[in-house]
Amino acid sequence: xxxxxxGTVLRVERLSKMFGGVVALNDVTFEIKKGDILGVIGPNGxxxxxxxxxxxxxxxxxxxxxxxxxxxISGFTPHKIANMGIGRTFQVVRPYHTLPxxxxxxxxxxxxxxxxxxxxxxxxxxxxxxxxxxxxVGFERDARVPYKPAGDLPLGYLKRLELARCxxxxxxxxxLDEVFSGLSAAEIASLVPLLERLNMDGVTLxxxxxxxxxxxxxxxxxxxxxxxxxxxxxxSDDALKDEKVKEAYFGKxxxxxx
Amino acid sequence: xxxxxxKSERRLERIDRGIKARTDGIYALLSWxxxxxxxxxxxxxxxxxxxxxxxxxxxxxxxxxxAGIYSLLAIAFDFLFSYAGMVSLGGALWMxxxxxxxxxxxxxxxxxxxxxxxxGTFLGGGICTVLLLPTLRLKGIYFAIATFIYPFIISHIxxxxxxxxxxxxxxDLPVIENGWVVLYVMAVLLxxxxxxxxxxxxxxxxxxxxxxxxxxxxxxxxxxxxxxxxTIAVYIASxxxxxxxxxxxxxxxxxxxxxxxxxxxxxxxxxxxxxxxxTFAGSLLGAFILVPLTEFLRPFGPMRMVGYSxxxxxxxxxxxxxxxxxxxxxxxxxxxxxxx
Lengths: 258, 340
Ligand SMILES: Nc1ncnc2c1ncn2[C@@H]1O[C@H](COP(=O)(O)OP(=O)(O)OP(=O)(O)O)[C@@H](O)[C@H]1O
Ligand SMILES: [Mg+2]
Prior knowledge:
The structure holds two protein chains of two kinds. Chain A has helices at 48-55, 78-84, 106-110, 112-116, 126-136, 155-168, 185-200, 212-218, 236-239, 243-250; strands at residues 8-19, 22-33, 37-41, 63-68, 71-72, 86-88, 173-177, 204-208, 221-226, 229-235. Chain A has one domain: 3-Layer(aba) Sandwich (Rossmann fold), CATH 3.40.50.300. Chain A is 33% helix and 24% strand. Magnesium ion binds next to helix 1 of chain A.
């Protein structure tokens, strides 16, 4: 199934994933156009991370397909998918603790995809490019933060480091698993412009989030999951008015806080 | 950087020596004293490897070559263990495959060592890598088990089928006639490989290996195949290991069953562990302590294993960090007690 003509960059079709008896994803279908920002929301355990893992090849879907620029990539290895242009961050950050922050970017800069781009650095100058990228995502060069071991950095920096990895990889689509969680309002506010800038540069963003208020300032469209089922797909403004979504989030007839 | 250890009321404080701090930057080049501080350890090592052999009596020259062989195995082990996160018990596999490959190149094809050694090194490395390939995509203990089992399987096959010399091995292989050349081939190769691998692990490739060790999924997500990385690491280590095996067959002019002996798997690991894993210098130091020690204890017959084990145990208990990191610390820092 190709969607290239109408600008669809990624299409998830009738995706299901079972873990033993647990249905983590149940017949989920949606698509995202090039340059869009899509929010994916849903209560804890609703299958958001599993969805990301299926798209990026870390988990093999039980049924269904994932089409990237028209190619079915379900069943491809994670590194192959990354090289095709889909980058991801991890919900629990995964820095290389003992390496200096900037050395954390050597791996993505070393990938076949990054090497294909001019200006990704060859032998000897990847370090410099890594530091430029880190400065871009908000590491203060003067304070020598890029040289500190990643394990010593606070969470705010580590979230940025996850983003930097996707940038170093030159991903066309970046799938962000809860980049805002665990950050203060001020930290989130400083991340938003960065994401906006990435998007302006043509990067398609899929953002899994629990922080709806901040998410809605960025994402124009959302997909809502609950128990692995897609409850809603459409404008973010309408999502919270939807009865089924309200029920999934707040329980029947109850009002609550997000 | 000061590291401190808590000890009841007193605290042991470790502080960088002034000269260590001064020589961290480019300013080290301003004084001879500081340049020598930086150069001393390397000079010491180079002298030990390249000059010392001249003054050794002939028996000990052979011990030097043996220690070199074990050093190569220890370096190969350490590279996989500390930079790719793989535990290899494959010293005997490398020795056997390297030894037999060089041996067959010599006996069947009549190649002199100048050709059989390099060809055997890279070919043997390839053979080991192919043998281990099925385990490289698996996580866990499979790789370690395979490296451990293969020497038994291969030696049994050779005995059962009576191929490659069968039980008696391949004798009268082409050797290097000149004893000094034999000695210096090892000295130069060992020096080159030691500095080469230390360089490799701080290059970009080395960083990718270390990234894989810390989090392989993040490396996959960065567009790099873990299987390919592990294959490369295993090939590099196997080549170093097979060089050791090939060299021994050239040294003896013979290759046989004993190349698959368990000693070759165990002693290099012990050397690396007591020397300090991750440093390579530790592997070298460990091998150059353990191998002469083994020779020294030889007259004691079976009792030598006891002495050997006691010394090993003492090292592990008293200096668990490894000898080399301990020496580095002493060289760079001083310590004092402070009241708290
Ligand atoms: N590897 C796995 N093995 C077994 N069950 C799993 C596995 N991964 C996820 N699950 C189950 O699948 C369901 C969906 O989990 P998932 O992590 O995708 O939810 P999520 O929406 O990301 O939740 P959260 O908001 O807490 O991150 C859960 O019930 C979880 O227990
Ligand atoms: Mg999740």
